[in-house]
Design a protein that fits this description.
The complex is a heterodimer of chains A (about 180) and B (about 110). Chain A has about 180 residues and is α+β, with helices and mostly antiparallel strands. Chain A has one domain. In chain A, about 55% of the residues lie in helices and about 10% in strands. In chain A, strand 3 and strand 4 form a beta hairpin. Chain B is α+β, with helices and mostly antiparallel strands and about 110 residues long. Chain B has a domain of about 60 residues: Ribosomal Protein L30, Chain: A. The chains are: A alpha+beta (about 180), B alpha+beta (about 110). At the A-B interface, helix 3, helix 4 and helix 5 of A face helix 2, helix 3, helix 4 and strand 3 of B.
Chain lengths: ~180, ~110
């Protein structure tokens, strides 16, 4: 069974094993705590709230005009994600959550923001970070979470018809690289 | 190698063509320079975390691009490090950048030159 299935009404049904479901259930709280911390990692802030202008004065104007909207949108997406997990259904073999069609974009946005945060924390700077991972190798909790969220994000995109392989440049396909990132 | 320019998606102002006429002294085309001053490029930068498929999804959502055009821009970002997605007035460009930031893409504005 596909982990993410699109329904006739446009909603997505997500099936996860209990362990992964619990990790995702607690994710909004972890991110909320992170966003409210005073010692918020400056590099994470720069990644989640990137600059629009090189010019400092123009950037200040831009932040004044649209900065709050961006912060609000990040918090809204966190709430949307939290809500889907509050309404989850616990099954014998795992958990099932339903993402209404109107929430799919914001849900994906939250997954992506969390991945970006983890990318900064893990100091990922190269596109091939996910290539050649040995399943027997011990990895950090953050890296394991990043892989889980990457897998889940791609499952959602697959269900929406955005299959990763369709966008892989031919020369990289033949080189056998795993370029998940763009 | 992919082309670095794409068909304009919105009202793009073309730079004035220089006319060489050695017999006359031409004055600066103030109308054109004023219009150029108002044109800003919306640029998306490469990022090691964002999935290719997600980037295509976002380009389609934000700009209403076809899948083919969105894919071309994504590949340009992946290979060249950046891609100009559209050129338009500053206010509009800021809104595009703001929407791209909401999706977690690294986007900036740059005044169009030449």
């Amino acid at each position: 069974m596909e982990p993410v299935q699109r329904q006739d009404d446009g909603s997505l049904r997500v099936y996860l094993p209990h362990g992964e479901g619990l990790v995702l259930y607690t994710l909004p709280q972890r991110i909320e705590e992170l966003l409210s911390r005073e010692d918020f990692n400056r590099r994470v802030a720069e990644r989640l709230f990137p600059v629009a202008y090189e010019d400092a004065d123009k950037e200040a104007e831009y932040r004044k005009l649209l900065g709050d909207d961006l912060r609000k949108s990040k918090l809204e997406s966190l709430e949307v994600f939290r809500k889907t997990f509050e309404d989850w259904e616990i099954l014998q073999e795992g958990v099932e959550v339903t993402i209404p069609e109107r929430s799919v974009e914001t849900w994906l946005g939250f997954l992506n923001d969390t991945r970006l945060y983890l990318g900064v924390e893990l100091d990922i700077t190269e596109n091939d970070w996910s290539a050649g991972l040995d399943p027997d190798e011990e990895i950090s909790e953050e890296l394991a979470l990043l892989h889980l969220l990457t897998w889940l994000q791609q499952c959602v995109l697959d269900a929406l018809g955005f299959t990763q392989e369709s966008y892989m440049p031919e020369d990289e396909e033949t080189a056998g690289e795993e370029p998940g990132e763009g | 190698m992919f082309a670095t320019t794409f068909p304009p998606l919105f009202e793009e102002v073309s730079p004035a063509r220089a006319v060489d006429d050695p017999g006359t002294v031409s004055l600066p085309d103030t109308e054109t320079s004023t219009r150029l001053d108002r044109v800003w490029n919306v640029i998306v930068w490469d990022d090691p975390i964002n999935l290719m498929s997600y980037v295509v999804y976002v380009f389609q959502k934000v700009f209403g691009m076809s899948e083919q055009l969105a894919t071309r821009h994504m590949i340009e970002v992946h290979k060249a490090g950046r891609s100009i997605l559209t050129s338009c007035e500053r206010e509009k460009a800021e809104l595009f950048v703001s929407r791209l930031h909401r999706y977690g893409l690294q986007a900036t504005l740059e005044k169009q030159t030449g």
